[in-house]
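I hope you will forgive my troubling you with a question about protein structure. I am sending you one protein, given as its amino acid sequence and as whole-number tokens for its backbone shapes. Thank you for your consideration; the sequence and its tokens are set out here:
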Amino acid sequence: QVQLVESGGGVVQAGGSLRLSCAASGSISRLDAMGWYRQAPGKQRELVANIINGGTTTYADSVKGRFTISRDNAKNTVYLQMNSLKPEDAAVYYCNVRRLYSAINYWGKGTLVTVSS
């Protein structure tokens, strides 16, 4: 099993920055994909960013150029650097790990990001 613990959420002003961290424990491989999703009130959970083995990344169009995802395999940790935050970025951000072969997903409990105008 895999356990994920997010940290780094908080309240920031529009235009500010935050860095989210997700520490994974348990049976995890460098082959597993790691990513971040978010869900705002009244909206469906959506992919924010994803990173796979080899460093290939995917971003939602709404965050391209502002957010950067990275991972430290030695620490089993994935990060999300969020710059130039906008009020529409406010949401609960969830860490995700997806198994390469089985496609089984693991989720963290989420960390709240609030952006004030």
About this structure: The mean pLDDT is 95. The chain has no helices and eleven strands. Residues 92 and 112 are 4 Å apart (CA to CA).
